[in-house]
Write a structure and sequence with these properties.
This is TRI36 ligase. By secondary structure, the chain is of the alpha+beta class. Helix content is 29%, strand content 21%.
Length: 709
């Protein structure tokens, strides 16, 4: 049995944060109280009426509209969708559960279902929470008696006496359904909110809601996929039961996770205290350095001040002596009173020198010391900038981002990443990856240390999906993990080959690069000569080229890309027994009527052979054409797909199948049977201006050239 008190979290309305009262189911499948829906819509309408002003009623005493919801209401009101009296009322509703703007349709609240199941569970919770509080009879005279049963048809509670009075034996009311005392009354039949007289008997799989037959016939669900209510009930109940059984079977694992989370909570508390202490010590250390610098600067200023004051004081005393009857002048005046020439001359000579110096200093007065302390100004502009950038080291490095365009899976995985910012780049990186398995409960990440911004990963399993993430390191500082990127390995080991420049190679029409990894068909003078000889209804012949290595067994994959300007290209496989016929068939023209595998509707589907010694698919004009087969779609437009940037072919000789893949996502675009009794070769055909480039092996680009390439 489920403990009712243990599920209180699921019974709280996301708007009012209280137990649900008459909950309604929104189109996003979240439930919200009926009153809360109306109050949010009233606030929404008031915001429209007030033009999004701050004076609009943003909340009521009951409802607690979050700031994000009000921001969305204001955003919608300012987006130009303000209505006049002739336009329908707005049906947008900011769901407080998923934080999205939900369209309620033209009927608004009236088009929503009540969540009777949730309402019943809430009522059971209320009864468990207030077991001591009885439900009183609605019909007793005061004082009312405690009710013993509730009538679901009358939506009222009765004591035994009142129930007998209002449900007399032998009347229609005696057949009413009654249950134990409750305040939750739900209708016996769920009616359609769109068509109030119709009961719901179907389930729309697109909208995920019950509908009636009128909704399906001519309503908004006319073109939707529906199923019977009994089938939907059975299917959803089976799925929910299986999921619940799975969760219950993992009870020990859930408890282990809860224990782990409890430890993490305690560890978080301890680590936060350590972080606070470390931050406090760092700032105290920084403050200690500043205090030392401050004391040294103040001591230097004080010493300079004392020296300057001493010089200025001495200079002031010297000038004080130049005053009459004071100092040097007074002494000179006394010397002038001497009448003995020999004594006067003896004293006056030195005195005269001093008087001359005093006279000279008087004419060229200059203070003995500067009064300003410009040399002692502390320049802290750079330090202020550094302190302004002071932050925790976890934010000191930019989070790297894996570049999915430059990363690719082929014979090995090449993972490339970059940092959004140009400053504080990391010295090293750690790349982690793991294989995605549905059966595994938890993944074990494999770690690789990298000094550059790319890494080649070897020994990955074929036909598998891998998750990759990276973080940067600078000493002991590290960035958060990047967002995980999922890449898919090829469905089979990579088969390496080059274009064959001998077997059937037409050097007049085709041009190979020196490495024989690219071939180009030029629409030049030879094509004009060929077109001069062609007859009405046909085009010029295709120029074929094959790989220089054949396949006799096993499963293999190779990839290439076709230039966007290519007009017509055919790719696939051919058996060794058909190579000569392929190159020397004079009727080998790309006529839509002649080539049954050209991708065009030849009108001769009965002649299709599901097991041919060759299979070719048509590409061109940035399109991929699915060949005309009995199993192919009849509509020609549905057989035309966008041409992937890189195309792959997977040949399974053991099963006699060949598949054509989008080499970027490793998604199979088309698969057919092929006769692999002989040696199979990769085959290509070009006409007009076209070019094909074989996919370069990952290791070849980074100097890891091995014998298997």
């Amino acid at each position: 049995k489920v403990t009712i008190k243990g599920i209180e979290r699921e019974l709280i309305c996301p708007a009012c944060k209280e137990l649900f009262t008459h909950p309604l189911i929104l189109p996003c499948q979240h439930s919200i109280c009926h009153k809360c829906v109306k109050e949010i819509l009233f606030a929404f309408e008031d915001t429209f009426a007030d033009g999004g002003s701050e004076s609009s009623n943003q909340s009521s005493p009951r409802i607690k509209i979050s700031s994000s919801s009000m921001d969305r209401i204001d955003r919608i009101s300012r987006s130009g969708r303000k209505r006049n009296s002739l336009t329908p009322r707005s049906s947008l509703f900011p769901c407080p559960g998923c934080q999205r703007d939900i369209d309620l349709g033209e009927r608004g609240i009236n088009g929503l279902f009540r969540n009777f199941t949730l309402e019943t569970i809430v009522e059971r919770y209320r009864q468990a929470a207030r077991a001591a509080i009885a439900i009183m009879c609605d019909f007793c005279k005061p004082p009312p008696q405690e009710s013993t049963k509730s009538c679901m048809d009358c939506s009222a509670s009765y004591c035994n006496e009142c129930f007998k009075i209002h449900h007399p034996w032998g009347t229609v009311k005696a057949q009413h359904e009654y249950v134990g005392p409750t305040t939750n009354f739900r209708p016996k039949i769920l009616m359609c909110p769109e068509h109030e007289m119709e009961r719901v008997n179907m389930y729309c799989e697109i909208c995920r809601r019950p509908v009636c037959h009128l909704c399906k016939l001519g309503g908004c669900h006319a073109n939707h996929r529906v199923t019977t209510m009994s089938t939907a009930y059975k299917t959803l109940k089976e799925k929910l039961s299986k999921d619940i059984e799975y969760l219950i079977s993992k009870e020990s694992q859930v408890k282990a996770h809860i224990t782990q989370l409890d430890l993490l909570l305690k560890e978080t508390e301890c680590n936060s205290e350590r972080a606070k202490e470390a931050a406090s010590q760092s700032f105290e250390q920084l403050s200690h350095v500043l205090e030392e610098k401050k004391s040294a600067a103040l001591r230097a200023i004080e010493a300079s001040k004392n020296l300057r004051l001493e010089k200025l004081q001495t200079q002031a005393e010297e000038y004080q002596g130049l005053l009459e009857n004071n100092g040097l002048v007074g002494y000179a005046q006394e010397v002038l009173k001497e009448t003995d020439p020999s004594c006067f001359v003896q004293t006056a000579k030195q005195l005269h020198v001093r008087i001359q110096k005093a006279t000279e200093s008087l004419k060229n007065f200059r203070p003995a010391a500067e009064t300003t302390f410009e040399d002692f100004v502390v320049d802290i502009a750079k330090q202020e900038e550094i302190l302004g950038d002071l932050a925790f080291h976890s934010n000191g490095l930019e989070v790297p981002e894996i570049n999915e365009e430059q990363s690719r899976m082929y014979n090995k995985a090449l993972i490339s990443w970059e940092c959004p910012g140009k400053t504080d780049s990391a010295d090293t990186y750690v790349l982690e990856y793991h294989k995605l398995n549905r059966g595994e409960e938890s993944a074990t990440w494999q770690e690789v240390k990298v000094c550059s911004k790319s890494k080649v990963i070897s020994d990955l399993d074929d036909d598998s999906s891998y998750a990759f993430r990276v973080r940067g390191y600078k000493g002991t500082i590290y960035s958060p993990w990047s967002q995980e990127v999922i890449l898919h390995t090829p469905p089979a080991p990579v088969f390496s080959f080059l274009f064959d420049d001998k077997c059937g190679y037409n050097s007049e029409h085709l041009l190979l690069n020196p490495g024989r990894t690219s071939v180009e068909s030029r629409a030049g003078f030879p094509l004009l000569l060929g077109s001069e000889r062609m007859q009405v209804g046909c085009y010029t012949t295709l120029d074929y080229i094959i790989g220089d290595t054949g396949i006799s067994k096993g499963k293999h994959f190779w990839a290439f890309h076709v230039e966007a300007y290519s007009y017509l290209v055919k790719v696939g496989v051919v058996s060794s027994s058909k190579i000569q016929k392929l190159f020397h068939n004079t009727h080998d023209v790309s006529s839509p009527r002649y080539e049954q595998d050209s991708g065009h509707d030849s009108g001769s589907e009965d002649a299709f052979d599901s097991s041919q010694p060759f299979t070719l698919v048509t590409l061109g004009m940035k399109k991929f054409f699915i060949p005309t087969t009995p199993a192919a779609p009849k509509d020609p437009a549905s057989r035309i797909l966008p041409l992937p940037s890189s195309l792959g072919i997977c040949l399974d000789c053991d099963k006699g199948k060949v598949g054509f893949y989008d080499a970027g996502s490793m998604k199979c675009l088309y698969e057919s049977e092929v006769d692999c009794s002989g040696i199979m070769y990769p085959a290509f055909a070009l006409m007009g201006g076209a070019a094909i480039h074989l996919e370069e092996a990952v290791t070849a680009k980074y100097g890891e050239y091995h014998d298997d390439i």
